[in-house]
Amino acid sequence: MPHFDGLLPLYKPHGMTSHDCVARLRKWLGIRKVGHTGTLDPDVDGVLILCLGKATKVAQYLLDYGKTYKGKIRLGMATTTEDASGAVVETSEVAGSIDRERIERVFARFRGEIRQAPPMYSAVKVNGKKLYEYAREGLSVRRPFRRVQIYDLALDSESACFTEIIPFEVSCSKGTYVRTLAVDIGRALGFPAHLLSLTRTKAGPFTIEDCLTFEQIKARLADGNFFKSIKPMESGLTHLDRWTVDDAIAEKVACGAVLPAPEGFRDHAYAVYNAKGDCLAIYRRHPERKGLVKPEKVLVTGKS
User: Fold this and answer.
1) 117 with 151, same domain?
2) pTM score, two decimals?
3) What is the domain range of residue 163?
4) Most exposed: 167, 238, 249, 274, by fewest CB within 10 Å?
5) Confidence of residue 304 (pLDDT cuts 50, 70, 90)
6) CA distance 196 to 173
7) 279: which strand partners?
């Protein structure tokens, strides 16, 4: 059986869950070790990074990626799910047009750190139960607010004025609900609103141009070129601080050794590399032994 180890940037199509995508790749590749790095709703298409084989060990570190999206806000109509798949619960006529300057003033209020309550139709748990389970039972519960970062928010159009549809582009931190952002923007403009459509165009270092569709994957499997499509695991860890070690320390890292902290080692995860550029492990400060670091995840075994 061939070894599929690395990252696969997939263009997730509309109508499939992230788990559906994982299941299809498992079947096509004949392997169990396939995982995704951040759920995309079925109605959202675009960049979904899949981890294959040994790269599933680093999936948790790819969840921290910032994301970029392009989408459309529909003014005048609110839904149960905050997107186009939900039942309409409120409507309001959008009379006339809204000038660009007014929208940009509202957008400015949402840049930086903002506070969000997750949608009722989401997998966030309250008292051990997912919010969407409460919603399906017709129950409403107090939702925990979270703080997220909106790095950039801009109109995705050169138009001077808009009516019901507002095209936008947003770059944001992990944990941001763009559905909720759309609803809050609509409310700030004075209208009920929902997210009409959304495409993820970037996740960490991977852009939509890096992605393969399922049709392309199938063709490359057929002609034997699929291996060339797999990105090395290291390409997904560029957001982590890098610690390069010599061969002697590399052997200790491969055995999961506790080591003296190098100068300047800070309180977050470091990707540890050997001289050849292979990522050996993820290390952090030792929680109990001052001046030492310990492995959080060892990615290789034996000599490096």
Assistant:
1) yes
2) 0.89
3) 67-203
4) 238
5) very low
6) 21
7) 273
